[in-house]
Amino acid sequence: MEKINIKIVLIGIPIEKVDCRYLSKWNSILFKIDKEALLFSNLSNLSHLGFDGIHLSNILISGILENNVIPCDLIIGITDRKLDGDWFTQRITDKSFIISFFGFEDDLRMSEIPLENFILRFIYPFCLIYLNNKNRIPEQEKALIHPDSQRCIFDFMKYKSDVMVTLIKPKISAHSKANFTVACPVGFLENIENELQKLNVKLFYRIMKWIKRKPIFAILISGLFALVINIIAAFVYGFICNLAH
Asked: How confident is the model at residue 207 (pLDDT cuts 50, 70, 90)?
């Protein structure tokens, strides 16, 4: 199975905001991201089309992406502006979609989640939808997406909290696996899930976040732990001294 070739277009954000080299080095059996991102930073030129400086409509995004003739399978726009309906992802055409991290930066920073992992978390479901629909993104996806929350990358998500939950141990639910009908190598979806686990928030960062939220309790635990270590050390020292005599 050939990998899906992806081109990134940064819309209204500086090139240093997103580590495109990190994205291009991401090792996946599903897709490959071009290391050179296109940059569309001067949105002030769109004021005559109704751009208000905050909200990017699908019409504006479509114009930006379609004006760039790019030899690839999928074009992904990335922006920090609001999208239609306050969504954080939107299908633009059957070969393109947009990801917005508007309103997410503080949450990602507090949770110690790299912005690039947030982007990759949405690239996976769109690529699988693309494959499952004969290499196109349909206007409505009904087979893989489901309304119930299972920490699945195909959970129907309207709120930021829904997204943040699926950034911790993301997976593909049994429902979505059963409705993925494309002929693929044995263990394909399982390998995708293994890749998704690399996006999981590291244990170290989860512990640090817990300490920040409950500093007093953390101090009590560390003090208790130190006391136990001292007791054990004293016991071992006394035991060794007794053996020496």
From this structure: low
Question: What's the per-residue H, E or C state across 17-55?
Answer: HCCHHHHHCCCCCCEEECCCCEEECCHHHHHHHCCCCCE
pLDDT of residue 69 exceeding 90: no
User: 13 and 39 in one domain?
Assistant: yes
Separation CA 15–CA 11 (nearest Å): 10
| 86-91 average pLDDT score | 90
Is residue 239 in a domain?
Answer: yes
116 and 176 share one domain: yes
Q: Are residues 128 and 226 in the same domain?
A: no
Burial (Cβ within 10 Å: 0-12, 13-18, ≥19) of residue 100? buried
> Confidence class of residue 185 from pLDDT cuts 50, 70 and 90?
confident
Residues 153-170 pLDDT 10s: 999 887 777 888 888 888
Q: What is the DSSP string of 124-157?
A: HHHHHHHHHTTSS--SS--SS-BSS-SSBTTB--
Contact (CB, 8 A) for 77 and 9: yes
143's tokens: 């087979």
* Nearest Cα residue to 57 out of 16, 19, 23, 12: 12
Q: Where are the beta strands (DSSP E) in the chain?
A: 4-11, 31-33, 38-40, 55-56, 74-79, 82-83, 89-93, 96-100
Residue range of the domain that includes 134: 4-202
